[in-house]
Amino acid sequence: MSDFHSLTISEIKKETANAVSIAFTIPDNLKSSFEFKAGQYVTIKHMIDNKEVRRAYSICSSPNSGLLIVAVKKVEHGNFSIFANTQLKAGDTLDVMAPQGHFVLTEASEKNYVAFAAGSGITPVLSIVKTALETNSHSKFLLIYGNQSIAETMFYDELMVLKKSYPERFLVEFIFSRRKEENSLFGRVEKSTVNFFLKNKYSETAFDEFYLCGPEPMIDMVSSVLKENGVNEKQIHFELFTTAEEGLLVENHDGKTEITITVDDDTETFIMEQTTSILEAALDHGIDAPYSCQGGICSTCIAKIVEGKAEMRKNQILTDGEIAEGLILTCQAHPTTSKLVVDYDDV
Questions:
Q1: Which of 4, 91, 144, 150 has its CA 20 to 30 A from that of 325?
Q2: Where do the 2Fe-2S ferredoxin-type domain residues begin and end (predicted)?
């Protein structure tokens, strides 16, 4: 479950001045392990300056392509993103975990889709767009994509090729905040923008599914406007790359808990402080629990509570139904009972 596989990079492509795409060679014996759904991500592990770094990156290729490609945008103080953009080259190897994630294309049927993306949020959305168009010849997709300028727009050329390949079924609306460009809007993805496209320009189209990926304020705003326009919450799918929310614990966590953790069929029991997260306790105890972001915005560290209770500092991924089933984000979860049994395998 938490196994990493050493994959060779087949190609590094400069997408913008500050972003690259990384294509991996998948050996025949690992092809089944790296099958993925459109919208999923992989966790990459690498040693940089003698420190282990783990990062989750969305897959931008479609499952139908037979390729595994991720995109990495350079961010300030981002150890791996800077390394990927300045030092990685074809022929290098990286440790990669099998694909994961719940931000995926729904059943491939005849539907009308909309995606709101900003910046590197296009990465999983691109995979979803390609797959929706490839899989059903009657599906339509509207992409509303915000950036600073064309030069900073990841996959601009690829999107224009898609638009040419599917002129009746793929519609893309570019929004640029720093430069006025032909056939685009100037500004940002705002409430007025959402209303303009849904209530005016595309008012005659009934959209079935909505995909949002970008900064947290944009996702919150677009979700709110969609609901105001009568869109059911179940039709709205989103993925965060970063979050400003720190998260708070409501219950008192000053005791100790006897915790039993199962990972990859190995089970260990030990005593942990309730002030520590379940993931931190597992790692401190030498258990190879799966994790990536440690910030509660990916789903790598999900486990199931078999016995006992725990409280999460924050949760922006799991649904109420999943929580009712006992699922938790272990990087955010703290025990609230004297005994707790957690299973990473039963997810």
A1: 4
A2: 257-347
Under DSSP, the state recorded for 17 is T
* The pair of three-digit structure tokens given for residue 263, joined into one six-digit string: 């990972």
Q: Which of 65, 80, 67, 77 is nearest to 9 (CA)?
A: 67
Assign residue 140 a region: left if phi > 0, alpha if psi is -120 to 50, beta otherwise?
Answer: beta
> Cβ contacts of residue 136 below 8 Å, gap of 6+?
108, 109, 110, 111
Q: Would you say how long the chain is, in residues?
A: 347
Give the C-alpha separation, 86 to 89, whole Å. 9
pLDDT(252) > 70: no
d(CA 263, CA 36): 22
45-66 pLDDT, tens digit each: 999 989 999 999 999 999 999 9
Judge whether 184 and 175 are in contact, CB under 8 Å: yes
The CA-CA-CA angle for residues 288, 290, 293, to 5°, reads 130
CB neighbour list of residue 41: distance below 8 Å, 6 or more residues apart: 56, 57, 58, 59, 70, 99, 100, 101, 124, 298
Q: At residue 318, does pLDDT exceed 90? A: no
Model confidence at 250, pLDDT cuts 50, 70, 90, reads low
241 in helix, strand or coil? coil
